[in-house]
């Protein structure tokens, strides 16, 4: 697999461009470096390469760095990193370029679904990832993007599917996030790297390292977006203030439902707490119409709720939660994307620009298949799905295993 960022170094074209911009002749450049005009011509036409000792002189003559002279981009923009991520994800699934909506909008149809990657496509993608990491090892934004890519797709990358397979890729992703922390002085970038590294550590079952990295005590929340929106308003940038505030509300609503999903396993011994959490979670989902705007968050919440009810032995609650889960999974528009509506009317632009922490959705057909299998893998819920009252639900979920 090649991307527009796999191009080789091309000194000849760069040398020709710099010489023309400076208005110098090949003779003048040759005299400065101590070679003939013919040698400069050969360099520019790619027929020969200068001795390495000539590179500092050439760079000095044109007042550029050696990297610039060689046409080497040590850094990539967030947009470039995002584009690379999307290309890799498409190649891994064999999907066409228009299957993943880069603008953050809904796909027109659910008919095309990503197939599982072939061994060849997985190998090509991993080779490309390794080459990109090597080429841009000093670009923190690219390394963050590649770390997130590996974290999202490690189970699809080449090799026998053993515990060692997953551990190797998760450790590689963790190393990339640690490298970002070493390279960058951007507080936001470091924070993103730390949190993604912590997630890797959790999957690697290293909880003490998670606490060492993030600390044990949660700081009081001080939302900076409120200050940003107020400053934008004072500057007369009302539209920007509206977008900032809407994006903040949207995030808090989705994060709160996600937190409730994480809370449920902690309270599964208390039916009262589980029922109260179910009521509050569903109220949030309804109020902010999250089934449509952020269906993955809702699916995770309902599956967590069904598992909690199953652990408690509350079969009616488990069946209702799982039915709501299956119905949403069956009707959600794939590829699944987050988007605004008439209330969140200004968040689509923000969703387009939030960068590699929200890259192109993981191969949506595979995601749908995996989500349909998850209920069967939970011990208590999987057991209930083998019983007669749950037979229609089990059949409904199995039909999604395309």
UniProtKB/TrEMBL annotation:
<feature type="domain" description="HTH cro/C1-type">
    <location>
        <begin position="17"/>
        <end position="69"/>
    </location>
</feature>
<dbReference type="InterPro" id="IPR010982">
    <property type="entry name" value="Lambda_DNA-bd_dom_sf"/>
</dbReference>
<dbReference type="InterPro" id="IPR001387">
    <property type="entry name" value="Cro/C1-type_HTH"/>
</dbReference>
<dbReference type="Pfam" id="PF01381">
    <property type="entry name" value="HTH_3"/>
</dbReference>
<feature type="region of interest" description="Disordered">
    <location>
        <begin position="96"/>
        <end position="121"/>
    </location>
</feature>
<dbReference type="GO" id="GO:0003677">
    <property type="term" value="F:DNA binding"/>
</dbReference>
<protein>
    <recommendedName>
        <fullName>HTH cro/C1-type domain-containing protein</fullName>
    </recommendedName>
</protein>
<keyword id="KW-0238">DNA-binding</keyword>
